[in-house]
Amino acid sequence: MNPTIDTMRRLLACLEPSLLEIADDSARHAGHAGAAAGGGHFIMTIVSPRFSGKRSLERHRMVYDALSSLRGQGFHALSITARTPDET
Fold first, then answer.
1. Per-residue pLDDT of the chain in tens (88 residues, 90 and over written 9)
2. Is 80 part of a structural domain of the chain?
3. How many domains does the chain have?
4. CA angle 52, 58, 69 (to 5 degrees)
5. Member of which family (predicted)?
6. What is the pTM assigned to this prediction?
């Protein structure tokens, strides 16, 4: 498995996700400015009761805050779908 995804899963455990899907989308971005090697692009779907009552921007902040220790370490871009269990 991808070590960055493993670390992301561990760090996101604090959000108590009932569903967490993370895919490495790096191959599609090889050569683009800022990530010449194409590494560090991920797509995520996360479902958590902790998102209840939060707007989309707040949910994304919660995810980025949980992943803050990964910045600059193989993590360049993240596409997030964040929902509550009621929204699935």
1. 788 899 999 999 999 999 999 998 876 655 555 555 556 889 999 999 999 999 999 999 999 999 999 877 767 789 999 999 999 7
2. no
3. 1
4. 115
5. Belongs to the BolA/IbaG family.
6. 0.85
